Description:
Elements: H1 8-46, H2 59-67, H3 71-90, H4 105-135, H5 140-148, H6 150-159
Helix pairs in contact: 1-6, 2-3, 3-4, 4-5, 5-6
Amino acid sequence: MFTGSLSTGEAALAGGIIGGMLGFALVVGLVLYVLMAIAGWKMFEKAGEKGWKALIPIYNTYIFYRIVKMTNWFWAMLVIGLVVSLITSALGQGTQLQTIDPSTSAGVVSLILMLVMCALGLYVSILYAVRTARAFGHGVGFAIGLFFLSGIFMLILGFGKAKYDKKLVKSWE
């Protein structure tokens, strides 16, 4: 029966198990990150961009959006996210859903702004997946895969035989 305290040996064993689990998760995460970086690098090269650009956070997202001719959406989402954060902060509400108080008018406004932002983000994500699939010569099924399992489908685009064709992407800019 558990008495509420661990012996030194039991504590060491528990610490070893937890440390092993954390180490395993770290190694798996690092391997996945490296695979995704390589896949992004290869996708960039297929699209005529320098591969190293895939390694720089935020800039790589901008380049991905530029590849599928959606840079206006990139900037719009960046500005809208900043504006929503500033408004909810100015109204005294947090920028996280659990800190919004819907019993106040400021809370209702913040909640509506955040829901609109989420809906717009969903729309842009779907549009991005469709345009990315189209740019690399794939259809709606591949776009659905990119939306729900983006990591796996990015690996397929990066390491597969897909070729980028900018003519397949319609520009809205």
